[in-house]
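Appendix B. Raw example, untouched.
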Amino acid sequence: MKVVLLQDIKGSGKKGELINVSDGYARNFLFPRKLAKQADAQALNELKNAAESRQFKIDTDTAKAKENAAMLEGKTLKLTGKAGKGGKLFGSVTSKEIAAGLKKEFNIDVDKRKIVLETDIKSFGTFNAEVKLYTGISANVKVMVQEEGN
Protein backbone atom coordinates (compact mmCIF):
# COMPACT_ATOMS: atom_id res chain seq x y z
CA MET A 1 0.00 0.00 0.00
CA LYS A 2 1.31 3.44 -0.89
CA VAL A 3 1.15 6.03 1.91
CA VAL A 4 2.28 9.62 2.42
CA LEU A 5 4.12 10.11 5.72
CA LEU A 6 2.83 12.88 7.98
CA GLN A 7 5.81 12.63 10.37
CA ASP A 8 9.36 11.27 10.30
CA ILE A 9 9.37 7.54 11.05
CA LYS A 10 12.64 5.87 11.95
CA GLY A 11 13.41 3.10 9.49
CA SER A 12 10.64 4.09 7.06
CA GLY A 13 11.16 7.66 5.85
CA LYS A 14 10.81 11.35 6.39
CA LYS A 15 7.76 13.60 6.54
CA GLY A 16 6.18 14.22 3.15
CA GLU A 17 7.67 11.13 1.47
CA LEU A 18 5.63 8.68 -0.58
CA ILE A 19 6.53 5.13 0.50
CA ASN A 20 5.26 1.63 -0.08
CA VAL A 21 4.43 -0.34 3.12
CA SER A 22 2.53 -3.51 3.88
CA ASP A 23 -1.26 -3.21 4.32
CA GLY A 24 -1.17 -4.42 7.93
CA TYR A 25 1.56 -1.96 8.96
CA ALA A 26 -0.40 0.90 7.42
CA ARG A 27 -3.82 -0.04 8.87
CA ASN A 28 -2.67 -1.18 12.31
CA PHE A 29 0.20 1.18 13.07
CA LEU A 30 0.51 4.21 10.78
CA PHE A 31 -3.15 5.23 10.29
CA PRO A 32 -4.33 4.91 13.95
CA ARG A 33 -1.35 6.99 15.17
CA LYS A 34 -1.90 9.55 12.38
CA LEU A 35 1.67 9.03 11.14
CA ALA A 36 0.59 8.57 7.52
CA LYS A 37 -2.35 8.82 5.18
CA GLN A 38 -3.30 6.76 2.17
CA ALA A 39 -1.80 7.97 -1.09
CA ASP A 40 -4.95 8.86 -2.99
CA ALA A 41 -5.23 11.50 -5.71
CA GLN A 42 -5.75 14.35 -3.23
CA ALA A 43 -2.75 13.36 -1.07
CA LEU A 44 -0.51 13.04 -4.13
CA ASN A 45 -1.67 16.45 -5.37
CA GLU A 46 -0.91 18.02 -1.96
CA LEU A 47 2.51 16.36 -1.98
CA LYS A 48 3.24 17.74 -5.46
CA ASN A 49 2.07 21.25 -4.49
CA ALA A 50 4.21 21.22 -1.33
CA ALA A 51 7.27 20.23 -3.36
CA GLU A 52 6.62 23.01 -5.89
CA SER A 53 6.17 25.50 -3.06
CA ARG A 54 9.49 24.50 -1.46
CA GLN A 55 11.26 24.79 -4.83
CA PHE A 56 9.71 28.23 -5.47
CA LYS A 57 10.91 29.44 -2.05
CA ILE A 58 14.43 28.13 -2.73
CA ASP A 59 14.47 29.83 -6.15
CA THR A 60 13.31 33.20 -4.76
CA ASP A 61 15.77 33.04 -1.83
CA THR A 62 18.62 32.21 -4.22
CA ALA A 63 17.72 35.08 -6.56
CA LYS A 64 17.54 37.53 -3.63
CA ALA A 65 20.90 36.30 -2.28
CA LYS A 66 22.56 36.69 -5.70
CA GLU A 67 21.16 40.21 -5.99
CA ASN A 68 22.47 41.11 -2.51
CA ALA A 69 25.85 39.52 -3.26
CA ALA A 70 26.21 41.59 -6.43
CA MET A 71 25.35 44.73 -4.48
CA LEU A 72 27.82 43.99 -1.64
CA GLU A 73 30.74 42.56 -3.62
CA GLY A 74 33.81 44.78 -3.30
CA LYS A 75 32.07 47.44 -1.19
CA THR A 76 33.70 49.01 1.85
CA LEU A 77 31.86 49.23 5.15
CA LYS A 78 33.08 52.08 7.36
CA LEU A 79 32.90 51.61 11.11
CA THR A 80 34.24 53.77 13.92
CA GLY A 81 35.62 52.74 17.27
CA LYS A 82 37.08 54.28 20.39
CA ALA A 83 40.83 54.63 20.59
CA GLY A 84 42.64 53.14 23.54
CA LYS A 85 46.25 53.62 24.61
CA GLY A 86 48.76 54.11 21.82
CA GLY A 87 46.09 54.64 19.17
CA LYS A 88 44.89 51.04 19.35
CA LEU A 89 41.26 50.05 19.11
CA PHE A 90 39.52 49.86 22.47
CA GLY A 91 37.98 46.37 22.44
CA SER A 92 37.34 44.79 19.05
CA VAL A 93 34.93 44.98 16.13
CA THR A 94 32.63 41.97 16.18
CA SER A 95 30.60 40.31 13.46
CA LYS A 96 27.49 41.63 15.24
CA GLU A 97 28.66 45.22 14.65
CA ILE A 98 29.45 44.40 11.01
CA ALA A 99 25.95 42.91 10.54
CA ALA A 100 24.41 46.05 12.05
CA GLY A 101 26.55 48.23 9.77
CA LEU A 102 25.44 46.25 6.69
CA LYS A 103 21.81 46.66 7.72
CA LYS A 104 22.24 50.39 8.26
CA GLU A 105 24.31 51.22 5.18
CA PHE A 106 23.05 48.72 2.56
CA ASN A 107 19.69 47.66 4.09
CA ILE A 108 20.63 43.97 3.93
CA ASP A 109 19.84 41.67 6.85
CA VAL A 110 22.71 39.28 7.54
CA ASP A 111 22.97 36.89 10.45
CA LYS A 112 26.10 37.63 12.49
CA ARG A 113 27.05 33.93 12.33
CA LYS A 114 27.25 34.19 8.53
CA ILE A 115 30.07 36.75 8.60
CA VAL A 116 33.53 35.21 8.39
CA LEU A 117 36.51 37.36 9.39
CA GLU A 118 40.08 36.45 8.40
CA THR A 119 41.37 37.71 11.74
CA ASP A 120 39.93 39.37 14.81
CA ILE A 121 39.61 43.11 14.26
CA LYS A 122 41.49 44.64 17.18
CA SER A 123 43.13 47.60 15.50
CA PHE A 124 42.31 50.40 13.09
CA GLY A 125 42.63 49.76 9.38
CA THR A 126 40.96 47.84 6.57
CA PHE A 127 40.08 44.17 6.90
CA ASN A 128 38.44 41.60 4.63
CA ALA A 129 35.22 39.83 5.59
CA GLU A 130 33.21 37.18 3.77
CA VAL A 131 29.43 37.47 4.04
CA LYS A 132 27.63 34.19 3.40
CA LEU A 133 24.19 35.06 2.06
CA TYR A 134 22.88 31.62 1.01
CA THR A 135 24.24 28.15 0.34
CA GLY A 136 27.09 28.65 -2.11
CA ILE A 137 26.49 32.41 -2.44
CA SER A 138 28.79 34.81 -0.64
CA ALA A 139 30.25 38.29 -1.06
CA ASN A 140 33.59 39.76 -0.02
CA VAL A 141 33.37 43.05 1.84
CA LYS A 142 36.10 45.32 3.15
CA VAL A 143 35.62 46.62 6.69
CA MET A 144 37.37 49.93 7.34
CA VAL A 145 37.72 50.74 11.04
CA GLN A 146 38.44 54.38 11.84
CA GLU A 147 38.92 56.28 15.07
CA GLU A 148 35.83 58.15 16.27
CA GLY A 149 35.89 61.80 15.26
CA ASN A 150 37.77 61.21 12.01
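End of appendix B.
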